[in-house]
Amino acid sequence: SGKSYLVKALSDLEVSNGGNALQIHSMDDYFMTEVEK
Where are the chain's structural domains? Predict the structure, then answer.
């Protein structure tokens, strides 16, 4: 449903802004990771 593409885009965006590359397999994991920070 496009989630993988979106997650990759978000990961690439974070990297381009000096963040770490994210190892994400689902949007739920992304949001869980963001909430824990």
Answer: 3-36
